[in-house]
Amino acid sequence: MTTLDKALISIDRTPFDFVLRALLGFACIPLLAWLHQDVRSVWILTVGLLLLLLSLRIVPVFLRKLLPLSSEAKAVWAERRQLAKRYDSFQWQKMFFVGLGLGGYTLFSGELFRSAIAVSSFCILAGAIGLVRWYLQVPKVRNGLVNKYVL
Known about the structure:
Helices cover 80% and strands 0% of the residues. The radius of gyration is 17 Å and the shape is globular.
């Protein structure tokens, strides 16, 4: 496995995946404001969050197509996609860290908009449920994994 393969695989492993998603959540409100959107609107913030989550699905698709990855790296990503399809909680845990980033920005900026508080609270609560459910599944899932780099 090449250095590029290892780097791309490690981006989506603990703790890097948590930090990356929190940073994306932190950047969501400033990005929407930069695009001249009303971040006080819960609908604008919700749509922005949905677009962020959608980009977390679409960007890796393009990376898989564009980058010359080894067959081992492709196998790791394929196994992760299968986990995501099989366990919803694997996906919902992402919401927790995006919500932490949103909440962190809200506190850091001092702009305590109801929309930001509501959306970040929902993400943290729903994501925490997913996180707990996922970590209850991990011992069972880990035994059935083919690639050691998946989790």
